[in-house]
Amino acid sequence: MALIVIAGCQTSVDVPGSRAEEEEEGGRLPAQEQQRWNELVTKIEKLEERGYTLEQLLERQEKQEQAQAVPAIDKDLMAARSVLADAIEYSRTTRTSETEGALQRLDALLRAVTDDLPASRTIVRCERALAYLSQNALNEADAELTMAYDIVHEARAQLRPGQVEQMIQGKAREQIGAGRPLDAAKVVHAIIERCARHPSLETMQRVRQGLRGASDALERGAWPVVEAELFEIHGAVTELGESIRVQPPEATAEEEAEGEEVLEEEAEGEAALEGEAGQAEGAEAETGAEELEGAAEATPEAAMPSEAGGAR
To answer: Which distant-in-sequence residues (6+ apart) come within 8 Å of 64 by Cβ?
Structure first.
């Protein structure tokens, strides 16, 4: 009997160390997260071996995040102003090769600035949409216009072409959805023209002209002209940078009316087409009715001789 009790007691005793092992297993990270953690620890240890402290690493990470938050166009404008300062200094000391090199660097930066502008990026998407519309590839054209809309919608107000959002979403894509590629193309052409007239692109056009003038003057050795052109470029680039930071005024009634003009013209065009279609249908119906009336009138006359013959 005592043996049975001992056996029963023995079965209720926990195996030494089993609970600790369960707690340890419960506190472990999943394999994938543990691998990431180990990689992070390894990176930190390597950086510490190079003399970095944890505080310095955190500060470095914060600066990287702040740099990523700055829009690309702001960085490009900053770089352009720096290269302009070098070019002006070289031109003052009549250093031909250095000035020529600075102008080439400036040309690449100004291209980048132009490409970063929302108006320019929207034009590219719209040109792609037009190419697809010419092939009747409506889904692809709609996708390009959707991306164009996102570009304008997410742009800073100072760089956003007016009324373009409404023209894309409320008209061009609507025409595509209705299966009317020609009507959609008309709206897209109007969007491109509106974007091309945006002040940011007009400013960059002046800058490009000034750069060509500086290059031509450098070839002639006209150093005063080179310096004057560079100062003109610097003023335009600075003006563009300041206009981006300043809150733009609200659109005037005249600007809003100009933006809605295309929509109204398209609506009138649709109404005219519908009216012509209605008139054509009415004319066909009227012609059909006249033919029926003519046939009805001709039937008794044609039947009279046979009736007379039957009477005889």
So the answer is: none
**The amino acid at 190:** A
User: Residue 155 carries which DSSP code?
Assistant: S
Please list, in sequence order, all residues whose beta carbon lies within 8 angstroms of the beta carbon of residue 244, skipping any fewer than 6 positions away.
Answer: 73, 74, 156, 158, 159
> Distance between CA atoms of 273 and 279, rounded to whole angstroms?
10
Residue pLDDT, tens place only, 130-170: 999 999 999 999 999 999 999 999 998 889 988 999 999 98
Q: Model pTM greater than 0.85?
A: no
Say if residues 146 and 242 touch (Cβ distance below 8 Å). Answer: no
Helices (H), ranges, the chain: 2-12, 18-27, 31-49, 54-69, 72-92, 96-116, 118-134, 138-154, 164-167, 173-177, 181-196, 199-220, 223-245, 253-311
Structure tokens at 116: 């970063």
Closest CA to 145 of 162, 161, 128, 157: 128
Q: Could you give the CA distance from residue 163 to residue 161 in angstroms, rounded to a whole number?
A: 7
CA 138 to chain centre: 19
Distance CA 306, CA 312 (A): 10
Q: Which of left, alpha, beta for 220 (phi over 0: left; psi -120 to 50: alpha)?
A: alpha
Contact assessment for residue 98 and residue 92, using Cβ atoms and an 8 Å cutoff: no
Q: How far is it, in rounded angstroms, from Cα 142 to Cα 11? A: 73
Residue for token pair 């006249």 = 290
**Mean local confidence (pLDDT), 249-258:** 51
Distance CA 152, CA 140 (A): 19
| Distance of alpha carbon 112 from alpha carbon 65, whole angstroms | 22
Query: Using CA atoms, how far apart are residues 289 and 78, in angstroms rounded to an integer?
Result: 76
Which CA distances in Å does 64 have to 57, 69, 72, 79?
Answer: 11, 9, 14, 18
Six-digit token string for 243 = 């206009």
Other CB atoms within 10 Å distance of the CB of residue 239 = 14
